[in-house]
Design a protein that fits this description.
Number of helices: 3
Number of strands: 0
Radius of gyration: 13 Å
Order of helices and strands: HHH
């Protein structure tokens, strides 16, 4: 797998985790942006990637940030409505 795919998978996984935290904790909604920044830093260290490696800011937003936000909100809304 290339760096973009690995990065997207990591961001999506942590998007689901952030959604669970947002549902379970009152302060969880405030943790999601912090988790997003920490995952970006972790991604840079593990895979040695920069924003330029992911296609610039546009590629980084489309491949990493957008899936994180969508899965975070989807998970939160799903759990909120189920329980």
């Amino acid at each position: 797998m290339d760096k973009e795919t690995k990065s997207a998978i990591i961001y999506m996984l942590f998007g689901v985790i952030s959604g669970i935290l947002s549902w379970g904790l009152v302060i969880g909604m405030l943790l999601a942006p912090v988790i997003l920044v920490l995952i970006g830093r972790l991604n840079e260290r593990i895979f040695k990637t920069t924003v330029e490696d992911l296609g610039g800011p546009k590629g980084w937003f489309g491949n990493c940030v957008l899936p994180f936000i969508l899965l975070w909100l989807f998970t939160w809304v799903l759990l909120f409505n189920l329980f």
